[in-house]
Amino acid sequence: MSPAGERPGPARWRRRLRDLQGAALPAALVLGGILLALNLISFGFGEAPVSTLRRAFEGTWGTPYGVGQVLFKATPLLFTGLSFSIALRAGLFNIGAEGQVTMASLAGAVVAAELPARTPWLVAVPASIACAVATGAAVALVPAVLRARLGAHEIISGIMMNRIADVLAPWLLASVFSRAAMRTADAIPAARLPRLERLVPALHGSAVSVAFLLAVALAFAAHRALSRSRAGREARFVGQGAEVARAEGIDVPRRRLEAMLAAGAVAGAAMTATTLGYKGYYEVGLGAGAGYAGIPVALLGRGTPLGLVLAAVLFGTLNQAGLAINARVPKEAMDVLEALAIVLVASATARGGRSGEAPP
Amino acid sequence: MSASALVMFAETLRIAAPYACAAIGGIWAERSGIVQIGLEGVLLAAAFTSVAVAHATGSAATGLAAAIAAGAALSLGHALLVERARVDPVVSGIAMNLLAYAGTRLLLRGLYDSASSSPSIEGFRAGPTGKSGAALLARVLLDPVSIAAALAIAATPLWIARTRFGLRVRAAGENPAAAAAAGVPVTRVRCAALALSGAICAIGGAHLAYDQRRFDSGMSNGRGFIALAAVVVSGLRAGRAALACLLFGALEALQIALQSAARGASRAGDLVQLLPYVATLVALGLAARRAAR
Q: Does the keyword Nuclease apply (chain B) (predicted)?
């Protein structure tokens, strides 16, 4: 872990270099494993691996549009990966990101649609995001309290919250907001996030929005908060050993509660990518799967902001490549690769332990 | 007993069986000292294997055997990752679940060119036909998969408490260092316990699939996690876990009955679906509070 008062200087750069070297082995293993498995799967479906690979590349990094789509797919993963990573630093598993994203998207979309049409964007966007973030934290509150105050398994309660969100979101849409089409009304234009193609014309047509920049900024800000603030340092201390932290006089339940709520809030912000930046409304199923997909991102990212961004982009590439090859090899192949990636990353970084910190 | 009470009872047993198998599997894993949140994946993989093999061979018994083998293999893989590769058990379990979910979907596309379900299969045909409560109950009780599940569930407490293997599993789980010092091959015992865990859990997966007479994508539908909750609530005791699953089955049977009664009447009826999950949350909280005291 990085001491708070560290000065910028050669020692710090050496440490960063060492971190990078430590990350190189898992990354190489993951890439190698993914390529091998993709070859095997495309053989199984009677396709030449090389042509599958070429299609996958052309659909992702081969064109500016593909790059934009990769970043678009990576955005929610970066939010949920960061969410899982924050909880992991405090020694907790936020499996509930899925439900947090669902409920936050719904809440944020309703606010974005219900605001008066002439609200300036400076009000509309923060209002919608704030509501989403608060909802994400509220959904995380149940597992957080159960874990921090009673010691109940946060994984099981997180999954239960996911199931509850699955039932509740359509029910709320149908009965409270009385939308027959299983989607919210369109957001007012001022609440929508601009697409990046307005800044970088080459990305024309792709759905990547300002939300990507927001996610990157959030990843760096969260890292800073975890290493510089007292609450963040104590939360990480709890993650490394709750007993020792308690003996040191740290309020363990409080730090756990805070970490889970922060994780829920960050997961809630994932709706900026799907709801505000892409569709402009929430519909049942929008953003589904992002919660679970954030787990490998967090594991591969190993608690550093740059690592998280790179991991999110890697898995975003896999997602987009899955769409590109779907005509020949089912896109489900990419989910199998993701499971494989989790195993490979975890076994390559097994020394890191539960705290999610890079090994020394 | 009135006819509808008989129907409810039969429904409860039918619904509870996969939960109970998964919970018993979870108990073997937890007793040996390995956290297994991959029960969901084992259920799903076993359900798929049973249907795929039964469809290919035309024999439901072969399908069941293959499902048991697949469940044991997947669970053993988890044990090896945790014990040999030192992967965090939660992370490995998450990967198992994802692998089973995505893998079965991939195979559905590959084998049957369908995104959602397999062709239907014959399954076991046992017991009388007919729609009466007694016939329903007889079908549930005479179903070979149910019988296999009941045997595994009934044998587990004795197996854990009275046999040499059970003792070794408990020793490996409670104090691995002391067990190793006493000459128990901890890693091997854990791997065996996890293979057994997967095999028993797989009976539940086959039950799920044979009950529907086909495989649907994602058909385990969170049962593995609810079973895990039953394991936690039971304090790792097989009898209590099975009882919790029965209660849960009764709750779900009630929910289905209520929902079909409320259909069309009001949208509020849909909220009954929340009942099992909220009940699980409450049970978890209560169990944790009791344990903390």
A: no
Please give the average per-residue pLDDT across A274-280, as a whole number.
Answer: 86
Shortest alpha-carbon distance between residue B126 and chain A (Å): 34
Tell me how far CA of residue B130 lies from CA of A102, B60, B94, B212, B228, in angstroms: 43, 22, 42, 17, 35
**CA–CA separation, A176 vs A170, rounded Å?**
10
Helical axes B186-212 vs B60-83, angle rounded to 10°? 140
Task: Please say whether the beta carbons of A273 and A81 come within 8 A.
Answer: no
DSSP assignment letter at B109: I
With an 8 Å Cβ cutoff, the interface of chain A facing chain B consists of 41, 44-45, 93, 95, 142, 146, 150-153, 155-157, 159-161, 163-164, 167-168, 170-171, 174-175, 292, 295, 299, 330, 332-333, 335-336, 338-340, 342-343, 346-347, 350-351, 353-354
> How does pLDDT run across A103-124, given as a tens digit for each residue?
999 999 999 888 888 888 888 8
What confidence score (pLDDT) does residue A352 get?
A: 44
pLDDT value at residue A19: 66
**Could you give the C-alpha distances from A83 to A124, B150, B216, in angstroms and in order?**
24, 42, 31
Assess contact for A103 and A275: CB atoms under 8 A: no
Q: How far apart are CA A116 and CA A118, in angstroms?
A: 6
Residues 6+ positions from B39 with CB-CB distance below 8 Å: B22, B25, B26, B201, B224, B225, B227, B228
Q: Of the given ranges (A80-89, A126-135, A196-205, A292-301), which has the lowest mean pLDDT?
A: A196-205
CA angle A105, A103, B255 (to 5 degrees): 145
Please state the ipTM of this predicted complex: 0.80
Listed in sequence order, the residues at least 6 apart from B150 whose beta carbon sits closer than 8 Å to its beta carbon are none
Lowest pLDDT segment from B52-66, B76-90, B275-289 = B275-289
Long-range CB contacts for residues B140-146, cutoff 8 Å, separation at least 24 = B140/B10, B140/B13, B140/B14, B141/B13, B143/B207, B143/B210, B144/B60, B144/B61, B144/B64, B145/B17, B145/B64, B145/B203, B145/B206, B145/B207, B145/B210, B146/B13, B146/B14, B146/B17, B146/B207
For residue A195, what are the β-bridge partners? A209
Q: Looking at beta carbons, which residues of chain B come within 8 Å of A157?
A: 281, 284
φ, ψ of residue B220 in degrees (nearest 5): -70, -25
- Regarding pTM above 0.90, the answer is no
Measured CA to CA, the distance from residue B244 to residue B260 in angstroms comes to 24
Q: Name the residue among A152, A168, A346 with its Cβ closest to that of B285.
A: A152
> What does the block give as tokens for A193?
């996030």
Q: From CA A328, how far away is CA A322, in angstroms rounded?
A: 10
